[in-house]
Every structure is written in structure tokens, then in C-alpha cells.
Input
Amino acid sequence: MNSIHVKHKWEPYLWLLPSLLLIAIFVVFPILIVFKLSFSEITPGGVIGGFIGFQNFVEAVHLPPFKTVMLNTFWWVLSVVGLSTLLGFIIAMVMNQKFRGRKIARAILVFPWATSLVIQASIWNYIIKYEYGSLNSVLLNLGVINQAINWRTSYPIEFIWECGVGIFVTVPFVAFCVLSGLQSIDGSLYEAATMDGAGFWSKLWNITLPMVRPSLTVSTVLNIIYVFNSFPIVYTMTKGAPAHKTDTMITYLYMLSFYERKKGPATALSVIGFLILCLCAGIYMVTVMRKEETQ
Output
């Protein structure tokens, strides 16, 4: 077996240096700046003052919409990530089967994920319009309803629609991640399980799930990050109205910074969101890795 000879011990680090510099400039450095700003006084005009400790964090936590926004963010991430993972897994199982038109079905499946989120949210805004929305028109023509329905009668329903659109655009990503894992499974494993008398659920639990767990781990962690930071859907559909009742943390800190001119608390909220993401992703990764080690 041929071995790779390295003349100098520092040579591998030299090749890594450009990537490390890019990460430091575009990731680490901005994060450090935001952390510094969160402990600094910031005027409504954006002028940065001196160190004020945790004052921005205290003010952000005590703002009236904070509890509502945090609860919305929790349900937003949980519903979108959870349901999109479940539906994406089911769709991936279907797409992994051989049937006529499979390539066309896969191409159609990618459309919601490949299209801009602003466009998707705008289309769904049009679909559920009370006056001239497509949903009412279709249901009226099919005779399902006798008169147009206002699909946006209260802010909880508005929030449910936001979550629904989030699930709709996230399912394709999960489906293709799982599909890549399914296609890497050796078919002989299923054949051997069938000869041993294993049924569908037994093969799903003992072969499919363990083999696609790495793909599910990647898609779940990335989804938690993407969904938590998702801005276009909520902002395009409701802009957090009424009175931040449909806001998530990302849209709320944007409104707080650029509309209400409270840049200090908004910066503190961004740090809180960053720490929450690190904690959630870390807990999930540790849990999954422990399960893999015990198997």
C-alpha cells in the first residue's frame, strides 16, 4: 500500500490556511463583532458607545413581545423540522421505488425547495386570499363550499399557514437527503431479511432507519439552523402582524432594529438565537452519536 510522504509537518496546515482564513474573516470575525455590539450601547442612529454589560439582554428579555416571539419560534422550528422530516422520509421511501414517471416526479419534488422563499410565500398569500384566492375558487367550483371562506381570521391561523408553507418548502430537502441514504443501501440486505421472514416494519426498523440515520442527522441539524433563521416566509406573509403575534425571533429582531430603532436589544437577541442554535445542534449531535456508539 502506497503511503503519502510529507516533507514538512507544517505542509498540510499550509494547504488548509486559505480555508481557515476565509472562515475566520466571514464567520468567526462577524460573530465576535456581534458579541461585542451586544455588550455595547447603540443609539437609534447606529452610533456605538461604551461597554454597558448585560443591559441590552435585560432590555430584550423584558420587552412585551419577547415571550410570544420565543414561543412562536419554538413551535415554528418544532413543527417545520418535525413534520418535514416525517413527510420527507415517507416521500423518499416512495421515490426510491421503481415506477413509471419516477424521474419526472423527482424533478417536480425539487421545485418548492429550488424556488425563492419570497416567491413561495407570495404565491401562498395569493392562494389563501379571501376575495380572489385560488383555494376558495377551486373549492367553490368543486362544490365543497357554498361561499368563500376567510382563511386568515385570527393570528393563530395565520401562524399555522406560515408553518404550513415552511413545511411545504422544506420537505424536498429532507426527501432528497434521505433518498441519497436509501440508494446507498445494499439490496442484498433486504433480500436476506425477506428470506428470514422479516416484514415491512421489521426491515424498516432494523435495516432502513439505521442505514439512513447519518443522512437524517445531517438534514435535521441543517434544518434546525435553516428554519430557525428563516426570514422570508414570515416577513412576506404577515410581517409579524398583528403586534408581533406571528413573529419568530429572526423577523422580530429585524423589526426591532430597523423599525423600532432598538439596535442594542436586537443585537442581544441575535446572540441569544446563536447560543440557542449551538445548544440545540450540540445536544442533537451528541444524542445521535451516543446512539450510534451503543449499537
The domain at 67-267 is CATH 1.10.3720.10 (MetI-like fold).
